[in-house]
Structure formats: C-alpha cells, structure tokens
Amino acid sequence: MSLSSNLRIRMRLLRAVLTKRFIYPDVVDVALTFGNLPVPDVAGDLEPIDLLHHVGGLDSRAWPDFSALRPDAMVGGPTDRENWSSERNAAEFIGRFTAALQAGVVIELGCFIGYTSAHIATALRSQRQPGHLHYVDCADDCLVATAANLKRFGLESLATPHRGTSCDPAVLAELPSAADLIFIDTTHAYEDTRVEIATHAPRLSSRGCLALHDSIRFPGVRRAIAEVRDRFRICTFATERGNGLSVLVPRR
User: Fold this and answer.
1) Which of 71, 104, 111, 238 could form a disulfide with 44 if both were Cys (CB 3.0 to 4.6 A apart)?
2) Euclidean distance between CA atoms 105 and 204, whole angstroms
3) What is the DSSP string of 148-193?
4) Cα separation of 167 and 197, whole Å?
5) What is the pTM assigned to this prediction?
C-alpha cells in the first residue's frame, strides 16, 4: 500500500471519530475500498427454527424438503461472483416460517433470480391447502430468471409475477389486499425501506408478519426497523454471512 493510500485511510477513520459519525459503515467501506476485505464481524448459521428444533421444541419432519434448492441449481445468477445468492439459511428460514404460518398468501418484494421465492413456493405447495406467492421486481431479467427457476422445480403454478417497484401504485393495485407474510429484500436504502414498511404493513392479515433481509448489514434497513419498534415486536438474528434477518410482528 502506498503512503498516500495509507494516509487517506487514517484520515477517513480520524474524521469518523472526530465528527462522532456512526463508525461501522465507514470502517467497512475503508476495508472494502482499500483492502478488498470481507468484514464478517456478525455471523450466525443457526436460525431460530433450527435452534428450537435443537432444544427439542420442534419436529423437523414437519418441515418442507428444500434439499433440491441448492444455489448451483438455479439459473440466471452471475457466474463471476461467489456467494451471489441469498444466504441459504435465510431462504430456508423464510420457507419454514411460511410453513409455520400455514400461509395462504405471501408477497415477496425483490426476487432477484428466485432463490428465496423457490423456498416460499415449496413451503406453500407442502401445505394441506396450498397457498400462493406474489413476487415483485422492477428488473425484467430478474422476473424471467425467477419464473424459469420456479418452473424448473414445478412451482410456477403457485406464483404470480408483478413488474414494478415495491410501492408502484400499479403494482399495489395488483397485489392481494391481505397477506400472511410480506418479505422485503429490495434496495436496502433507508427511505425505500421506511416507505415499504409503512405501505405494506396495513396489508397484513390478522396473523401476518413482515420479514426483512439484510437487517444487520445495511444501516438504512436497521434505521427503518428501529423507527417502528413501538408498532412491532421484532426478532433479529444473524445469518450465515452476517447480513441478518428481522421478523416484525404487529403489536395488536
């Protein structure tokens, strides 16, 4: 590393301390910019449902079989990046949570290529009364890839695509009026997440929940969730790459 680069790093960190800015994002940015280093300072590979099974509270035989839904079985993902997919234990948790809710309707905001979508649809198919998934994305290539992956596993009849942004009035008009689970995994920007929570929470059924991915890694998601603590009970846990996942249960 050159002397000038070293000084730039030190000056940025000094500025963070002197201005009392929230330091963590700055440190991560410095590490990625100058060192190309992963910063998995928050990690966990045991999600809550697995934990309950471990202590004897759940029978794992009741859960859907997700063994076929490997990241390398998906089409349409980037070939030049490792770990491109959603974290596997996050997707499996959302699938198991869907089954635990015996959800009739699930809305997924941001589908990428359908890795989590396939877990949700698998859970919906396993129920005595199959449910239905509505998945939303503003990118045509993501919708095409998701549809292809759902078809690959025979799940296409359980899901309906919607093209547009998560709060696009045209999309909102197409979505069902009530959902048992709404999963948010979009831009992760504070303002977008804040509006998504405010817009979609009224759509929850009497037993419905919100779930948000990347709720540890992204400051905007953390901030938006923190601002609704008076309206929701919140469970946040670390996922395998430290990105985090939060479930928001309305205080009724």
Assistant:
1) 238
2) 10
3) HHHHHTT-GGGEEEEES-TT-HHHHHHS-S-EEEEEE-S---HHHH
4) 10
5) 0.83
- Can you list the domains of the chain with their CATH numbers? 1-39 (no CATH), 43-250 (3.40.50.150)
**Among 87, 88, 91, CA closest to 123:** 91
User: Structure tokens of 156?
Assistant: 């296409």
Phi, psi of 18 (to 5 degrees): -70, -30
With CA atoms as reference, report the closest residue to 235 among 71, 100, 140.
Answer: 100
Distance CA 186, CA 211 (A): 12
Is residue 230 a contact partner of residue 203, using CB atoms and an 8 Å limit? no
Per the prediction, the chain carries an average pLDDT of 87
Residue 91 near residue 115, CB atoms below 8 Å: yes
Q: How many other CB atoms are there within 10 angstroms of residue 164's CB atom?
A: 14
Choice between 91 and 8, residue whose per-residue pLDDT is larger: 91
